Each structure stands twice: as C-alpha cells, then as structure tokens.
Amino acid sequence: MSNRTRYQIGVKPSRATSLMGIVVLSFFFLFGLAFLYMASQPLSPYPPGSVMSPLPGSTSSQTDPGQILGVIFSLFWLGMVVAGILYHVKNLSSDDAPAINTVEYQIETPPANVPFAATQDAAAQLRELQKLKDENLISPTEYDQKRQAVLDRFG
Predict the structure, then answer these.
(1) CB–CB of 135/143 below 8 Å?
(2) What's the CA gap between 53 and 108, in Å, rounded?
(3) Euclidean distance between CA atoms 100 and 84, whole angstroms
(4) Which of 12, 42, 67, 118 could form a disulfide with 60 if both were Cys (CB 3.0 to 4.6 A apart)?
(5) What does the chain look like in DSSP terms, one character per residue?
(6) How far apart are alpha carbons 80 and 86 in whole angstroms?
C-alpha cells in the first residue's frame, strides 16, 4: 500500500517583482492624488476665466453626488495602493512577508519495504506480460502464473 504525503508551499513575489511593484504602485499613487484633487474641486457651470465665472474667493453651493463618489473612490484607491506598497516594502526588507498564494500538492510514495526502482521495475514487467498475453505469445495460465510471481517478488 502506498502513502500520500501532502505539501503546501507559500508563493510570494521575488525581490525584483516587489521592486517593480513599488515603482508601478508609486505611479498609481500619484494618479490617485491627481484624481482626488480633481474630484474635490467645486463644480462651476462656467469655464475658468470666462466672463460669467464666479468671483475669486466666492463659494459654490453645488454638491454633485458624482463628486462625492469620486472622492470616496480616490480615497479607496489610495488606500489599496498604500497597502500594496507596504506589502512590497515588507517583502523586500524581510523574508517573512506573507505569501500571496498557497499551492497544495500530494506525492504518492511507494511502500517502505519496496525500493522505488523496484516498483517501477514491477510495473514495467507487468506491462510486458500484459503485452505478451494480448499478442497471444503466452497463454492466460502462463500470464497468471508469471504475474503472480512478479507480485510476490515485489510485494
């Protein structure tokens, strides 16, 4: 009877990937700041510098729901970017950064009393016997005897 051994491996970015992540996320951070600035500006129905624009220093009482959503989205965006930057900085600075993915796999091992090469040899011999039987080069009785001998020898 064979044994199955289960393994789990944590996968995380390489140092080069983390460095590139910090660079890319820094640009995303600047984009988020620009978007936050644009979303937080008061709305005016007139283009800047037009004759009809409000006087400098006057306030607009318009509140647009889209503007509020823009500010909320940019704050969320900036929070996610900062979290990503912090993760990559931790990954660069130490070996104990958390894994971003876990891979699980199983390995089937042969019984302890039979060497691995022997089980491979037994399988090859059984396949060869089956092939001889299928080609009618040995009788079914001979096949059964030889098969049992192989199984007895390799356990």
Answers:
(1) no
(2) 77
(3) 11
(4) 42
(5) --EEEEEEEEE---HHHHHHHHHHHHHHHHHHHHHHHHHHSPP-SS-TT-TTSPPTT-------HHHHHHHHHHHHHHHHHHHHHHHHHHHHH-S-PPPSEEEEEEEEE--TTS-HHHHHHHHHHHHHHHHHHHTTSS-HHHHHHHHHHHHHHH-
(6) 10
- What span, in angstroms and rounded, lies between the C-alpha atoms of 2 and 155? 11
Gap between the Cα atoms of 138 and 129, Å rounded: 8
Report which residue type is found at 17.
Answer: T
Residues 29 and 81 sit within 8 Å (Cβ to Cβ): yes
Which residue matches tokens 């510098």?
Answer: 49
Q: Which is nearest to 14 in space by CA: 82, 92, 100?
A: 92
Give percent of the chain with pLDDT exceeding 70.
74
In the chain the first and final C-alpha atoms are separated, in Å, by 9
How far apart are the C-alpha atoms of 6 and 9, rounded to whole Å?
10
Residue 142: how many CA atoms within 13 Å on its side-chain side?
10
